[in-house]
Backbone:
């Protein structure tokens, strides 16, 4: 059900619109309704991450857009791949397998700041790109738009929408490790103002280059009717099923067992695709949601967009975290270090299971309008939203002696990866350990006022109210062990000034706030249920500069992000929730477009020279230290050149500076640079294309996702060939 305010707003303004229907210019509205496709360009002018359909130059905040064309050129088949090749992003390999995404050093995934079509997409699952028109990254505080979270920014996946054309495309990819992937994108115009679009995907591989097998299927569809008319409706569905393997992580290693922890390092003697888990390990998950949408256009400049989404998510992870066996179990009777590491090194294997379900319901209505009042031009954004979220977590029950004898994982050795050992994981008993339910409401308004021909002023305010309940249980007995509640009411602010001397240049200074509740990770307890929200603020001075022919754009920003009252907790160590403070400041930039008609370039870079824990907490990252997972520099450069009408080549570099794992254990994962290559040949009047991709050409060893005791390696060298047919 939609929030009452949206229903009333739609009803009252819908009545007004009856008198405007005859004066509406359908052709103008229809042109606005059909944005450029992400598969046709890497440079875009508009975005929907700011709620309305806005020009990027009119948003006083840094936004990076990665289109389907860029994603396809580089063969990124997961959203994680897309984000990895973007400046300012790093990954935490968290306990429980719940990998977190860090933007400017602040959590994204853990605080639920991943969205699909502007709607929160908080479940932990391996997101695929098969239905993405583009991926948008909003940098800096954005609670005014999205509510809780958004300290470092937000990621928005834009799903493909039906278009008023007939177009179809099939891609088949073969590659290293028996990689097989097929995708289909089918768009059918069913009427003068209606269309249907279906996207499908199937993908398998023995290894993804970093130790995990792949087995997933996806299908998504949407039907739009009334496209570009006064009332436009849409209905869509999405389903992704992962039955993948999982490489939980590789242990850091020291030069000798007696060496200090500060000397820990990546293991240079292990290939990144080496797998020492069980053959019975898996990481299964399903994401399913249905979406209903309605747009009412009061005029060419005013519309009300209403969306309802119901989602269901499940995750069943049975993983192995291996460790070096003790000295007594090693062939040489010595504890393991790099000095005596070899094929005979014995590993123990422990269970790391995670089973959970999520069910969510979201509804939101957003009004966007351009008008004149009191002698000034205004661009208004206003809306209300509702979120109902439920999560149930299941834990392994206490095993009997007989069950333990069957389910305990056997040891293995470094010289026998993929040894085929398995245990009957399906017989492991589980029970509910906790469930979490929350209800949240938000209302916001923002206005951009044209103060003078070259100056615009932005101001916005949002109010959120959220209640949550958390109940914990003993997984074996089912007895309740605790009940906790949270009640949050919070205001968020946004302000900015835009200076636009001409159509090619836009400069801004902006300020925004955000907040993170204790229930961001859907977990409450005695130490955090009464803890006030973390508060954050972001200051930014930025610019967007277009070339004279508008084929090339540069975006740059100087920023400072500060988080106050930071919580410092660890899932394995019972540290009380305490207050802290940290900040990060630096520069990030993008450059996108064509230098010449044949030469196309994309780059994304972040330099964060200053990052500091201003106020620390016992057992957490120490005061005065640089925060973990905050490299000083990171980014990517990708370029392609059309040699002839049939032949195109491309190359790129991905780079990241050294960074410390979670909780600053005193050592760093080293900096790295990897290189990628592309060669493409098009025949049959642009209908048939064959391209070859090589990623990590030099087979560089690097840590991709980091944790205190282990890391997940980046994928080694992989080669893939893709055939595309358009009809």
Residues:
């Amino acid at each position: 059900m939609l929030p009452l305010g949206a229903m009333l707003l739609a009803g009252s303004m819908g009545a007004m619109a009856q008198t405007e229907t005859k004066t509406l210019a359908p052709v103008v509205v229809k042109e606005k309704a059909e944005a450029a496709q992400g598969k046709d360009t890497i440079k875009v002018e508009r975005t929907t991450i700011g709620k309305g359909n806005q020009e990027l130059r009119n948003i006083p905040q840094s936004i990076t857009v990665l289109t389907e064309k860029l994603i396809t050129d580089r063969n990124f088949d997961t959203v994680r791949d897309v984000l990895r090749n973007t400046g300012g992003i790093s990954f935490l390999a968290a306990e429980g397998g719940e990998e977190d995404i860090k933007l400017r050093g602040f959590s994204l995934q853990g605080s639920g700041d991943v969205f699909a079509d502007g709607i929160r997409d908080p479940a932990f699952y391996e997101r695929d790109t098969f239905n993405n028109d583009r991926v948008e990254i909003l940098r800096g505080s954005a609670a005014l738009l999205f509510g809780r979270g958004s300290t470092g920014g937000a990621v928005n996946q834009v799903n493909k929408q039906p278009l008023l054309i007939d177009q179809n495309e099939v891609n088949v990819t073969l590659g290293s490790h028996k990689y097989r992937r097929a995708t289909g994108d089918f768009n059918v115009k069913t009427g003068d103002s209606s269309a249907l679009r279906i996207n499908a995907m199937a993908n398998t591989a023995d290894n993804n280059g970093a130790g995990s097998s792949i087995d997933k299927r996806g299908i998504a569809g949407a039907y739009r009717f009334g496209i570009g008319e006064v009332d436009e409706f849409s209905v869509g569905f999405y389903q992704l099923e992962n039955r993948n393997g999982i490489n939980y992580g590789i242990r850091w290693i020291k030069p000798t067992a007696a060496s200090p922890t500060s000397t820990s390092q990546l293991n240079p003697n292990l290939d990144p695709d080496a797998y020492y888990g069980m053959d019975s390990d898996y990481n299964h998950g399903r994401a399913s949601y249905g979406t209903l949408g309605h747009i009412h256009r009061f005029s060419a400049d005013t519309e009300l967009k209403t969306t309802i989404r119901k989602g269901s998510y499940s995750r069943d992870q049975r993983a192995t975290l291996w460790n070096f066996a003790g000295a007594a179990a090693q062939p040489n009777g010595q504890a393991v270090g790099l000095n005596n590491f070899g094929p005979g090194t014995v590993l123990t294997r422990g269970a790391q299971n995670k089973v959970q379900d999520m069910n969510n319901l979201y509804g939101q209505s957003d009004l966007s309008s351009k008008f004149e009042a009191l002698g000034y031009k205004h661009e208004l954004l206003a809306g209300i939203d509702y979120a109902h979220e439920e999560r149930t977590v299941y834990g392994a029950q206490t095993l009997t002696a007989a069950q333990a004898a069957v389910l305990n994982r056997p040891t293995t050795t470094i010289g026998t990866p993929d040894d085929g050992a398995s245990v009957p994981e399906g017989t492991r008993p589980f029970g509910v350990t906790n469930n979490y339910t929350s209800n949240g409401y938000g209302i916001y308004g923002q206005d951009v006022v044209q103060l003078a021909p070259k100056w615009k002023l932005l101001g916005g305010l949002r109010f959120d109210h959220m209640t949550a309940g958390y109940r914990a249980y003993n997984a074996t007995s089912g007895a309740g062990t605790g009940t906790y509640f949270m009640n949050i009411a919070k205001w968020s602010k946004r302000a900015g000034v835009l200076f636009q001397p001409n159509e090619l240049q836009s400069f801004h200074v902006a300020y925004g706030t955000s907040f993170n509740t204790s229930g961001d990770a859907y977990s409450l307890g005695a130490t955090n249920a009464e803890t006030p929200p973390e508060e954050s603020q972001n200051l930014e001075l930025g610019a967007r500069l277009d070339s004279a022919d508008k084929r090339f754009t540069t975006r740059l920003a100087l920023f400072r992000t500060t988080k106050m009252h930071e919580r410092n907790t660890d899932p394995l160590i019972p540290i009380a929730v305490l207050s802290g403070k940290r900040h990060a400041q630096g520069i990030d930039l993008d450059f996108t477009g064509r230098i010449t008609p044949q030469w196309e370039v994309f780059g994304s870079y972040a330099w964060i020279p200053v990052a500091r824990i201003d106020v620390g907490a016992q057992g957490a990252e120490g005061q005065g230290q640089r925060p973990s997972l905050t490299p000083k520099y990171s980014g990517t450069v990708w370029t392609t050149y059309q040699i002839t009408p049939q032949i195109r080549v491309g190359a790129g570099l991905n780079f990241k500076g050294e960074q410390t794992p979670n909780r600053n254990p005193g050592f760093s994962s080293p900096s790295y640079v990897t290189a990628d290559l592309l060669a493409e040949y098009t025949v049959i009047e642009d209908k048939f294309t064959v391209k070859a991709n090589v990623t990590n050409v030099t087979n560089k060893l690097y840590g991709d996702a980091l944790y205190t005791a282990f890391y997940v390696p980046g994928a080694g060298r992989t080669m893939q060939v893709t055939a595309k047919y358009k009809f």
User: Anything to note?
Assistant: Helices lie at 4-17, 26-33, 68-73, 79-84, 143-146, 401-407.
